[in-house]
Amino acid sequence: MISFFAGLISGTIMYGAPLLYCTLGEVIGQRAGMVNLGLEGIMLVGAAAGFTVAAGTGNMWLGVLLAALAGAALNLVYAFLVVNRQANQLASGLTVMFLGTGLSAMIGRSYIGSGISGLARYQIPGVSAFSWVRSTMFSYDLLVYLVVPAAVFAWWGLFRTKWGLHLRVVGEDPSAAFAAGLKIPALQYQAQLANGFLAGLAGAHLSLAVARAWTEGMIGGRGFIAIALVIFSKWHPLRAIAGALLFGGSVTLQLQLQARGSSISPFLLNMIPYVLTLGVLMIWGGVRRFAAPAALGRVYSGEE
Amino acid sequence: MPKNWLSALARYVFILTVALIAYAAVLLLAGKNPILAYIDTFDFTLSSWYGFSEVIVRMTPLLFTAIAVALPSRAGLINVGGEGQLYLGAWLATWGAITFTNLPASVFIPFLVLLGFIGGGVWAALAGFLRAKGYVNETITTLLMNYIAPLVVGYFVYGSWRSREPGASAFPQTAAFVQEARMPRFFQTRIHLGFFLALLILFIYWFVLEKTKWGLKIKGIGGNPEAAKRMGIEVNFYLIAVMFVAGGIAGLAGMSEVTALHGRLRAGFSPGYGFVGFLISWLAGGRPLGILAMSFVLAIVFSSGSLLQITQGVPFAAINVLMAIILFIVLMKPNLRRLMS
User: Fold this and answer.
1) What is the pLDDT of residue B169?
2) How far apart are CA B248 and CA B93, in angstroms?
């Protein structure tokens, strides 16, 4: 029983962390008025590029860095279409999704089945006294330890800096932002670069620390779940932590039940995260419109 | 009018040419031979009657899934759930095919068509209901439901429906359907009834939208839902009904694939037809002739995907890159975008 709960807690944290990185990026993007359905593709490219570099060079952190940069670079496609060409946001996002799905399959192709050491785990100091609980409960890689500080940093950036204020004005009322002389395109590009960077990082965390493998399509809809979690979090970085833990918990519960030889079909268990996400959205749905950035999804041409 | 038609054609040709050149560059970077790839694709698809007939076979599910996106888009709904609706249509049709095994074909086929329609329709109507009641936007629900539907199929195909025939039971699939449950094929090819059904639905789609009061109302809702509500149109009813019909049409894609081609239900049988339907509808701007033309082109892209996997070791998923390039070009050029919308 203790090992069951220890596994549940450590799994919740491990599966929650990459989702939180991705959700934080999308919170920043949506605060600037843009919905990006391309996250799935960006995470896939991050996972494939990170794994390829890590397996090729043996340097895990080089993989993480390049995955994040590749994610930011890929998201320039979205930023270009939405900011410079005023294209439809959903279609632009799906362009990135298609692109990332295809590119990741090409990048990762020769690395299917390769093994890597994975990101190094570090024990939380001072808990070795509790050696009766499974040690994994207190041992994570650096990206896990950094994810909550990252959420606090995103909150600070969005709500305690001039940059964040400007970004939110763009998302709430672009014509006011224009009248105030803000550089709207620059702010939107910055938001999408951050979004792509974090989604790429999240993908690499999945392939380098969580799965320690690359398989085609391994993101499995997490990019879309992140968008759902943004709604759940009411566009707030700190509330996103709760959303990511909830989702991470549902994935882990499902895996733990399978590992324990539960008689429930794995197909039904695999549905839990998606059904839970839908359920949460439904419950939250009624209030969301009061929290969403007012200009979310609109095309701003700068002439209004 | 013919001039308009010609300039539209010229723009499509322009888009495709630029896309093929860009994709050639991608293949070249991946260390493949794009010229050989294009020649092989042409040989495989358009140079023989058999190859052409296989393109028509590939085109059939794409027609269905494209209409399933185009119809709701007229009411301002974004249905990105064609893939899930396709799976559920196949699932319910399969239930019918393996449960009622002694019906005559003249009853069986229409019955399975109905089941396929209901399966996909109810699945999509769920998203329509949530949207109409103001809970969740249909884009995110239909996207998430795409991941649930294949699991529903997997649950049955790996479970109680799994074939017990020797040989066949090694794969996750149901037993073969009886002959009366198989949609007929024509011209000694694999072209099947589903193709003609898709053409019929494409015609009905055009007729309803352009020639009936329903179409007027649907377009009114898409144009300005508030005004439509004030004019006394039952907006919520239409949102749910349109999603039901659209999902039903996507369900027919799954139903016809399963009953005409495979003759049994297999786990993961769709290579992403639902997502491509979105692309086709977008490129065609919802126009019936555009849907026909773009489905044909994307069917060739799909055929080349399977071919290049074998001849040059390019993963099948790489066709997503080509599709992304096409979308990118359309979205980038404002004058092309106006043409499409």
Assistant:
1) 66
2) 12
- Please name which of B229, B332, B267, B306 lies closest in space to residue B87, comparing C-alpha atoms: B267
Contact A82, A89 (CB under 8 A): yes
Q: Look at residue B337 in the predicted model and tell me its pLDDT.
A: 53
Least confident of A42-46, A62-66, B104-108, B320-324: B104-108
Confidence of residue A303 (pLDDT cuts 50, 70, 90): very low
DSSP-assigned letter for residue A32: T
Interchain CB distance below 8 Å, B321 and A267: no
Question: Which residues of chain B, if any, have pLDDT below 70?
Answer: 1-3, 168-169, 334-341
CB contact under 8 A, A95 and B331: yes
Chain A partners within 8 Å of B144 (Cβ): 221, 224-225, 228, 274, 277-278
Rounded to an integer, what distance in angstroms lies between the CA atom of residue B20 and that of residue B308?
Answer: 15
Give the torsion sign (CA, B65, B66, B70, B76): positive
pLDDT given at position B206: 94
pLDDT digits (tens, 9 = 90+) for B187-213: 888 889 999 999 999 999 999 988 988
Cβ distance of B315 and A106 shorter than 8 Å: yes
Alpha helices (H) along B75-104: 82-99
The DSSP call for residue A84 is: I
Q: How far is CA B238 from the centre of its chain?
A: 22
Confidence of residue A17 (pLDDT cuts 50, 70, 90): very high
List CB contacts (< 8 A) between B321 and chain A.
Answer: 98-99, 102-103, 106
For chain B, how big is the Rg over CA atoms in Å? 20
Q: Is A95 on the interface with B (CB under 8 A)?
A: yes
**Coil, strand or helix at B331:** helix
User: Which amino acid, A213?
Assistant: A
One-letter amino acid of A56: G
pLDDT above 80: residue A134: no
Structure tokens, A223: 């990019």
| Cross-chain Cβ contact B324/A106 below 8 Å | no
CA distances from A133 to A5, A9, A210, A250, B64 (A): 9, 11, 20, 21, 55
Residue A129 has pLDDT above 80, yes or no: no
Q: What DSSP character marks residue B341? A: -
Reported ipTM: 0.88
The residue-averaged pLDDT of A151-174 equals: 93
Spatial CA neighbour of B258 closest among B24, B16, B96: B96
- Residue count of chain A: 304
Contact B93, B259 (CB under 8 A): yes
Domain at A2-118+142-288: CATH code: 1.10.3470
CA distance B201 to B266: 26
Reported as half-sphere exposure (CB side, CA atoms, 13 A), residue B212 has a value of 9
Q: Which pLDDT band holds residue A131 (cuts at 50, 70, 90)?
A: low
Compute, in degrees rounded to 10, the torsion defined by CA atoms B273, B140, A76, A185: 140
Q: Measure CA B14 to chain center.
A: 24
Look up the CATH architecture of domain B12-340.
Orthogonal Bundle (1.10)
Count of CB atoms situated within 10 Å of the CB of B236 = 17
